[in-house]
Task: structure prediction
Amino acid sequence: MRATRIVFCALFAVGATVLSPSASSASTASTAQTAFTLTSTAFADGGLMPKVHECTSGGGQDPAKKNESPPLAWPGAPAAAKSYAIVMRDLDNANLIHWVIYDIPVSTASLPQNVQHVYRPPVPAGSRQVYYRGSASLYGYQGPCSPSTVNTYEFVVHALDRASLTGLNSGSSTQTAARTITAASIGSARITGES
Result:
């Protein structure tokens, strides 16, 4: 009987350790710290995007509009990532693609505000951008251009299984680039902004 009591007490102590709230909280905190997320210091997820990120090709003379890409950061990417790509879409306008930047080096986990409008921007070094054909014709970011409505713009960062998307070039379309990125993606994170 005494031996049974000792075994029961030992099992109870082990169970208490496994189920202790502090152990469970530590495990949850560890998981939360490694979650793949996309954030911006310019706006909160679902929040209003500042005018500086709006297009300059939609008419009007508002000097606050600069067509500058927002700063973005993506902590917690999959360890197997070999590069990154970002695709921006207008969810309220048939998922129109406004920006594709890819071949972002795996050592990079953020983009500064106002990535240059060139095929191969100097920052981040090694990255490439797709030519936007729409209300403007330029490489890289084309900001929100919806003067009479408030639309939702989605930014998605993809962790890719290869260092370079060699099948894409300076003449690739945004749709071709987005399909290629999706096919190579091993994980993604998103943020939306209203404008």
Remarks:
- The CA atoms of residues 4 and 10 lie 10 Å apart.
- The helical segments are 2-18, 21-33, 174-184.
